[in-house]
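Researcher: Quick one. two chains, 562 residues in total.
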Amino acid sequence: MTGLVISDLRLRIGQADILNGVSLGILGGEITGLAGESGSGKTMTGLVLCGLQPAGAVVTGRVEFTDSDRSIPNLLALQPREFNRLRGRRIAMVAQDPVASLHPMLTIGTQLTDHVRHHLRLSKQQATARAVELLERVQVPTPETALRRYPHQFSGGQLQRIAIAIAIACEPAVLIADEPTTALDVTVQAGILRLLRELRDDLGLAIILISHDLGVMSAIADTIAVMRYGTVIEQGSRQQVIQQPQTEYARELIAALPQVPPPGITTDAGGQPHPDAQPHPDAQPHPGVQPHPGNHPHSTRTGA
Amino acid sequence: MMGAILQLDGVTVRYGRGASAVTAVAGVDLELPPGQIVGLVGESGCGKSTLARAICGLQPLAGGRITLAGEPIPPLGHRRRPARLLRIQMVFQNPYASLNPRRRVGDQIEDGRRVATRPVGSVSDLLTEVEMDASAADRFPHEFSGGQRQRIAIARAMAAAPDILIGDEPIASLDASLQSRIASLMRDVALRNDASLLFISHDLAVVREIADTILVMHTGHIVERGPAERVWAAPQDPYTRRLLAAIPIADGLGRIPG
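Model:
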């Protein structure tokens, strides 16, 4: 089965424990949501899966990778050269802000074909043909013209589509989307979410969706893992985690969102909000203070 | 002392000149009476931040006028701003950028207190008001999380005893779980101090929770305005309806909005 199995992933930088034993299964054809606040370790988890943890970080644990033609027992044990052959090819990433993640001085065409030519050893013509297909796939209008343009000539939503095209160019098995819609307008967000769902279905991608917005999670995640203090404190299906959260913290996160859905939005066929969609009566207001990474009150290793 | 009224009549702002000029704000009328919370909602590029900059005198007008208590707001030049205009204070989107990283929190709030035209509480009073510990005064901005930094930025703005508090996307860089809370805090702090609040955001769901009046801005125009509950429950303009329909709801049902 395509996907990743993360077992007891720990990451420490200097004296700070950033990840305190993350265990998680990520399956092909599913969107796995990593929810949590700033400092909970969700982005760092994504970076480790790409082998992009900060220099000097001590990483332990195991990440098993499987795709259609190989199985790697532990990504963390790979040499940098070996990881370079996977990153961008079998495991790809989309960052939060496409204005920052794309190179401002290179055309979209260059940015879409460079890694394809390197990884798949395609000729320039082949790579360009592939780039046109990809832009069509992510619904960027007039792909041939778009290839000759620069990032500043596109809107934020179009740029994020292009960033996704770059990520899926080498047909990866795993796509890590770190807050892919946070920098976008709410009316553009829906289009990107729809695209991610299509890619899951059409390409059988294992998508890791990192977001602090449970509204976004609720729209497309199949399973949700809630992170806090560098560990997964709750995981389950989308319905379970959002409608019947088991931990106090998950309840708080849901209760902290604006409560009343906009008019015309009904949460079940009867036209009434779903009874289970209401926050738990015991939910306490969110404290409004985020933890600092490495300064986790229940950390297993700080102060040791 | 009662606050002053901020009034905008036909405010127009253009960027560039000649054929390539872009009209960012096109004839906006707006009244912000004391003790009122007005929410200004719209997407990137609609002109909402330009409008906020114009109110502070940071952006010259191509037409219309802006007055505070009946007196016009001149564009900010190299000279010191007249004292009456210090009664407009702003909280910006990114507290990482708006606070000085090299100075202690207490000193930065003290800067605000020094220009206040009426008596304000001490630095520790101000920090308590935004639900921070008074000991924060001796620390530096990098020692705090995003939500805490935004609280400090609010305390800094309130230290100048403003009549008008403007929040330009003050919650956009915060976690979803913090947004409602910081927005309500801004509302409470403004009301307790007899200031009015112009709260600019792209998030209608949060604005609705704190605003008395909502204005929806699209391509430089105000396309809809009205009491918050009315705009939320019975939006008249198609653009407002589209904005409302695009809000993702955490209901666990796997539905993409819009």
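Residues 176-192 of chain B form the longest helix (17 residues).
Researcher: Thanks, that's what I needed.
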